[in-house]
Structure formats: C-alpha cells, structure tokens
Amino acid sequence: MESExxxxxxxxxxxxxxxxxxxxxxxxxxxxxxxxxLSLKETEAWYERVLxxxxxxDLMLVEKETGKAIGFAGYVNIDWLNRKAEPxxxxxxxxxxxxRYGTEVVHYLLDYGFNELGFNRQYxxxxxxxxxxxxxDLRAGFEEEGLLIDDVFVHGKFHNRxxxxxxxxxxxxxxxxx
Length: 178
Prior knowledge:
Layout: E1 6-10, H1 16-23, H2 26-29, H3 40-50, E2 57-63, E3 69-79, E4 84-91, H4 101-115, E5 121-127, H5 131-140, E6 143-154, E7 157-167, H6 168-174
Parallel strand pairs: 4-5
Antiparallel strand pairs: 1-2, 2-3, 3-4, 5-7, 6-7
C-alpha cells in the first residue's frame, strides 16, 4: 500500500519502541485520546491482543523519500457486516508535522477503505481543540456531521468531540473516483 509520498507497512513488533516513544511525547499525546505515558511492556501486550482482533488494522507510515517512519495509522471499529470503519492516524514524528502528510494519509485510507475494502461509510471523532486535525480530515474527504458536547474527559477536563463521516458515494463523487 502506498500513496504519493507514504508507504503503509504492517505494524510489526520491532516498531513498538518507536510507537511508545511517539505516544510518550507530550506534544503528540496532547493531540490524541492518550491519557497516560505507555510502557513498552504494556504496548507489547496490547500488540499481542491486536494481532487477534479482526475489527482493526494497524499500519506504520514511512516516508518514501527517506525511508523514515513518521507515524502510524489504520482502521478501528471495523464492522464488516455493516461495511463501516473508523480510520485513524497519528504523525508521531513532529518534524513531519505541517507537511500535509496527514491529509494524504487520511485521503488514502478513505479511498482504500471504500474502493478496495468495500466500506460504505467511514467516520471519526476529533477533539474540538485540535483545529489542525479538523482541517486535515475535511480536506481529506470527511464531512462534519455533529458535535458531541462534553463527550470525553481527557487531559484534565471535559472536551467536545467533532464527529466527521462520509459515505462511499459522496467521497467518490467529490473526488471523481470509480
């Protein structure tokens, strides 16, 4: 799997130390739903459970030009019966922020999910203070669908979450796909 500038590779056990490093970076963690620093041991236990979980797929993001891993992405809450899923992304390498990798990755996940995996709907939730993620998701093909008031308690207080989603037909029509 690859987009214009990114290679998507399966998450492997040897990738876990880098994932832990990124998620333990307060700057990265503050943009996500991650409350506590993670240990490598608990991440390894998480990884073993994930290998058996058919409702998710986890991928590493690698810059084609440099071969450097810059983050991770994939799908969670895959509902094969109802043909829907929640794509996710985290650019862990803060030096890669601001280069529109996020938009490229989310767009690719939407396109791949709809046109290769057969999803009919994809959706997501964004912390309301993460304006960059909102812009990224809208540019990539999502539409804003709603606001969940005081929905999550994260980083010491309640936050709203913005719900985004899109159907295959709307996405394909907007981007002249299939």
